[in-house]
Amino acid sequence: MFLDYTYEYIDHGVSHCCIESSILSTTPSQLGIASDVYLISLSWRQDRRQQMEHLRASKDINWTVVDALDPSDIAISPFTSSWPADINALAASTEHLRSSGSDLWTFGDTQDRRLTTSSSISVSLHSNVTCATQDHSVPPFKPSLPDWMILTAPKISCWYSHVSAIRQFVDRGNASTEDVAVFLEDDIDMEKDIEIRMRQVWTSLPPGWDMVFLGHCWSNESFYSELSSPWVMSPLYDLPTRSRIHPSYSPRCTHAYALSLSGARRLLQHLRHPPFAYSRALDQAFSWLIESGRLRAFSVVPSVVIQRKVLSSDIFPGSGVGSAWRERLVDGVFGT
Known about the structure:
Blueprint: E1 2-11, E2 14-23, E3 36-41, H1 46-59, E4 64-67, E5 74-76, H2 87-92, E6 115-117, H3 153-170, E7 180-185, E8 188-190, H4 194-202, E9 211-213, E10 231-233, E11 244-247, E12 256-260, H5 261-271, H6 282-291, E13 297-301, E14 305-307
Parallel strand pairs: 3-4, 3-7, 9-13
Antiparallel strand pairs: 1-2, 1-10, 5-6, 7-12, 8-14, 9-12, 11-13
Helix pairs in contact: 3-5
């Protein structure tokens, strides 16, 4: 089924009127840009899953639900390298990515690693394990450290769950170098016209990009100059709107991002590599890989997917709905 719609865009001060065909239901491209979409969610958070089902139905998304690892199944113990030399070659390939690094860690093995699992171990919300910085610099633990600098079971769970989703994307059969996956968490809202916005900015991406943040927090992602792209007036409402795309600066939060196939392979190799694996919160890892030039990342500004923060947080239990960072959409599915 096809739907033709008219929209206006402004390029270099000149107004243009275009007709674009959007394929409904039968298109392999989701959210305007993706071959695959993954929703990461704890199986017992049915309150969140019910809300995400409303979002999925509203946007006609065919996503794969990835059951997140329950933080109660994790125990943390500290342990005391350079990056693998073949990361770039393996990232560019479509050959099977063999298990390596933390892929080989087995549950219950507590020797020489940070992540172990045991249903019989109770994990403190604030264990005396400090999050690493840079490649692997671990500051000494101090009781006065802020929450974001303390390695906790929910942070480990988040890392493991995203790696599991990325691995599903990488390991699919018949993979193409043109494939793109979007990874979402289960506390989000998105713009009703996200497909238009994403198609608009996607043409600006340079060859060889790895990652695109559809949403972020705690960073000025307009720090670097935006990439050139047309101005778009959405056909869904009268208010002119513009999405821009910038080279990423230091994005935090992992609620919505896209990976190219080579970017997913590159990211996975970093996330599984000891001692970097499970050494900090996942968004801190993303930011360091970007800041250190190991990932070529871009950010959509303003965010087209945001955290709703209306249900209790899994990353910061007991903190209510999460951090103080708040954003609003122009016209979100939930009205956020």
